[in-house]
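Training component of the fellowship. As part of building independent skills, the fellow (R.M.) carried out the full modelling exercise for a liganded target. The chosen ligand was zinc ion. The inputs are recorded below so that the supervisory panel can assess the work.
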Amino acid sequence: LCAEVPCGRLRRALKLDQGLDSFVSHRPILDNLSQIRKDGVEAFLDEQARCRELAQRLIAAYDAGRSKTLICTACALLPRRTVERIAARLEKGLRAGTLDAADRRGLARQLRLQLEAAASDLRIDLRLRRKKT
Ligand SMILES: [Zn+2]
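Fellow's submitted model of the complex:
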């Protein structure tokens, strides 16, 4: 609701003048705010719920024990359509038999490679940012 976005209070809270902190869900916060201004908070919350459902679906289908952070980060930072296309591609591979449903580690690896490739194409960094000390 502030006239100036980001306002001084938000700039301080997000440490915008010192570089964003490493908390992943803080990274898209300015984009999220402009989306809320454009489409309203209900549409934004609906989209967030869809992203959470997508992450849960991917964890249930492809996590072999070490992919939760990557999946959650990808679903938070990549466009949902991009992640859905990757999920559809993997599901197609499973149906066609080019991917082995019993090979959980292989599936987790395929998902990781595809998420990382999509992030790289979009110049989105999925790693946590650490402050230089
Ligand atoms: Zn403000």
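The panel noted the following from the submitted structure. The pocket of zinc ion is lined by residues 2, 7, 9-10 (CB under 6 Å). The mean pLDDT is 88.
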